[in-house]
């Protein structure tokens, strides 16, 4: 069983437990559900955008604890002030140390920036939940979803006025997963089955394979300004970066320094 298999098995149990506690009808009356969403597409297409999707992540299955000494409010506010185009907030507790409270805190501190709920979405319930938590963008991972489920979940996202980031790792996932409800295509440079790869080869290989009408972003394994410049040259508009920032004592200052080198 791969790490991804274990995560999805655990996630199915977690979602079932959450459904038993709070209904979808209740979610539609909670938190930020009625809030107008902020557009990731609009942010990335802004000529002045840095394209950086800055992530708050405490730990990962491959690295363990990355940073347990900073608060979500401190980091995400700093990210926004430094020039992030979007925030990504982990909400998976068991494998990544995230929580609903993290995204709620990020939303309260940063009302106008797009926020991606970074989690393993397998059920419509989680999309309603994300909207109530204040998220604007939903991540759908091709590695653990069938084309039919991506279509079904993507439609729910669109119906709720949110945007979908489809994450792929190779051409097979890309070819079978694209549909009319995808707003942004992200290429994860780290294989979720082993979390081992440490380069952006996947993004470079898929750059010309992603349809030209799709906004494309590169995810993970990005730390050098030269890498971002290289990815921009082949058409990437966004760059999801977390560990590079979070492994330092001052994540926002690390982001600020990176932005200064790519503008």
Automatic annotation (TrEMBL):
<dbReference type="InterPro" id="IPR011060">
    <property type="entry name" value="RibuloseP-bd_barrel"/>
</dbReference>
<keyword id="KW-0210">Decarboxylase</keyword>
<keyword id="KW-0456">Lyase</keyword>
<keyword id="KW-0822">Tryptophan biosynthesis</keyword>
<comment type="pathway">
    <text>Amino-acid biosynthesis; L-tryptophan biosynthesis; L-tryptophan from chorismate: step 4/5.</text>
</comment>
<dbReference type="InterPro" id="IPR045186">
    <property type="entry name" value="Indole-3-glycerol_P_synth"/>
</dbReference>
<dbReference type="GO" id="GO:0004425">
    <property type="term" value="F:indole-3-glycerol-phosphate synthase activity"/>
</dbReference>
<dbReference type="InterPro" id="IPR001468">
    <property type="entry name" value="Indole-3-GlycerolPSynthase_CS"/>
</dbReference>
<protein>
    <recommendedName>
        <fullName>indole-3-glycerol-phosphate synthase</fullName>
        <ecNumber>4.1.1.48</ecNumber>
    </recommendedName>
</protein>
<keyword id="KW-0057">Aromatic amino acid biosynthesis</keyword>
<dbReference type="Pfam" id="PF00218">
    <property type="entry name" value="IGPS"/>
</dbReference>
<dbReference type="InterPro" id="IPR013798">
    <property type="entry name" value="Indole-3-glycerol_P_synth_dom"/>
</dbReference>
<keyword id="KW-0028">Amino-acid biosynthesis</keyword>
<feature type="domain" description="Indole-3-glycerol phosphate synthase">
    <location>
        <begin position="4"/>
        <end position="257"/>
    </location>
</feature>
<dbReference type="InterPro" id="IPR013785">
    <property type="entry name" value="Aldolase_TIM"/>
</dbReference>
């Amino acid at each position: 069983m791969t790490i991804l298999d274990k995560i999805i098995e655990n996630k199915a149990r977690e979602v079932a437990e959450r459904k038993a506690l709070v209904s979808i009808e209740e979610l539609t009356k909670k938190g930020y559900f009625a809030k107008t969403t902020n557009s990731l597409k609009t942010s990335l297409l802004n000529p002045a955008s840095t394209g950086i999707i800055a992530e708050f992540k405490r730990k990962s299955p491959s690295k363990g604890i990355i940073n347990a000494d900073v608060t979500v409010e401190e980091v995400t506010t700093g990210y926004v002030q430094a020039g992030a185009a979007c925030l990504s907030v982990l909400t998976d507790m068991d494998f990544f140390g995230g929580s609903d409270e993290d995204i709620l805190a990020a939303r309260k501190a940063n009302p106008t920036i797009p926020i991606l709920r970074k989690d393993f979405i397998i059920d419509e319930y989680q999309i309603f939940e994300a909207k109530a938590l204040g998220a604007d963008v939903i991540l759908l991972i091709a590695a653990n979803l069938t084309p039919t489920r991506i279509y079904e979940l993507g439609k729910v996202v669109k119906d709720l006025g949110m945007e979908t980031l489809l994450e792929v790792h190779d051409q097979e996932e890309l070819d079978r997963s694209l549909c009319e409800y995808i707003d942004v295509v992200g290429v994860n440079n780290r294989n979720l089955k082993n979390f081992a790869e440490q380069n952006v080869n996947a993004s470079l290989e898929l750059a010309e394979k992603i349809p030209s009408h799709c906004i494309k972003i590169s995810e993970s394994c990005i730390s050098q300004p030269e890498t971002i410049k290289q990815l921009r040259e082949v058409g990437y508009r966004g760059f999801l970066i977390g560990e590079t920032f979070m492994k330092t004592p001052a994540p926002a200052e690390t982001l600020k320094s990176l932005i200064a080198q790519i503008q």
